[in-house]
């Protein structure tokens, strides 16, 4: 009996020592290079999947990725299907009403892009009558709808690839997207006819940087993420990951 009890206690202690916390991260199926995309082998690659792995290694947690459509990320978080969304989610007053955010882990301006031959100022008056393309359920779509929706036609897209394809073909006249995501694509041969048309001014609808979202009131997890992200910056891990995808310090406040 004593041997059986001792064996049970040892097994329990061993399990407790090796068991890992599980934190489920939500990630959008739509590719969004260089932030998140799948490699040729089907593995998640990019700045944010690498950052998630670094965070989870520091937390000594298992972190499965729950894949879903971009516009399903916040509903999945609220429904407890995921614990964290670290996937280019801008911090906005509207989103703060339904989820809590970590401190921003990167900042990116919104960039207007159009055919090189299009000579316009990207103001509501300057784009009057034109077709503007944006990715749906984003800060860019909210911004364009609010400021340009009455004077321009706005078309919404599920992913950046389709949006760029329609810009190249002339089905939209101009697009608004994350500068960090779209600017490198302008150097590709397929996009040689496209050019930057300026950065959108700062606006609450465009967010206060990008943070990791957790369920409302989950202060413990939010603070652990803050501490871990700061530790990764302090020891150089964040910059080592960032430098593989971006040339500038994207964590610096504008």
TrEMBL record:
* Gene3D superfamilies linked: Periplasmic binding protein-like II
Q: What InterPro entries does the database record attribute to this sequence?
A: Solute-binding_3/MltF_N
| Extent of the signal sequence | 1-19
The reply to whether Plastid figures as a keyword in the UniProt entry is no
Family, per entry: Belongs to the bacterial solute-binding protein 3 family.
Q: What is this protein called?
A: Transporter substrate-binding domain-containing protein
Q: Where is the Solute-binding protein family 3/N-terminal domain?
A: 22-249
- Keywords from the named record: Signal
């Amino acid at each position: 009996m004593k041997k059986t009890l001792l064996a049970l206690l040892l097994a329990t202690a061993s399990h407790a020592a090796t068991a890992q916390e599980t934190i489920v991260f939500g990630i959008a199926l739509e590719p969004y290079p260089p932030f998140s995309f799948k490699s040729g082998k089907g593995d998640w690659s990019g700045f944010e999947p690498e950052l998630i792995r670094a965070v989870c290694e520091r937390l000594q947690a298992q972190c499965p990725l729950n894949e879903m459509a971009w516009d399903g990320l916040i509903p999945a978080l609220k429904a407890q299907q995921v614990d964290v969304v670290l996937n280019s989610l801008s911090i906005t007053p509207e989103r703060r009403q339904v989820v809590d955010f970590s401190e921003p882990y990167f900042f990116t301006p919104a960039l207007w892009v159009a055919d090189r031959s299009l000579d316009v100022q990207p103001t509501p008056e300057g784009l009057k009558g034109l077709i503007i393309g944006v990715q749906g359920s984003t800060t860019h779509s909210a911004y364009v709808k609010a400021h340009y929706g009455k004077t321009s036609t706005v078309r919404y897209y599920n992913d950046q690839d389709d949006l760029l394809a329609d810009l190249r073909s002339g089905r939209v006249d101009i697009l608004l997207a994350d500068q960090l995501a779209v600017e490198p694509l302008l150097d590709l041969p397929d996009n040689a006819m496209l050019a930057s048309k300026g950065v959108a001014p700062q606006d609450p609808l465009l967010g206060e940087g990008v943070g990791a979202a957790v369920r409302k009131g989950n202060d413990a997890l939010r603070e652990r993420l803050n501490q871990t992200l700061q530790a990764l910056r302090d020891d150089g891990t964040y910059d080592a990951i960032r430098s593989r995808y971006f040339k500038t310090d994207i964590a610096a406040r504008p």
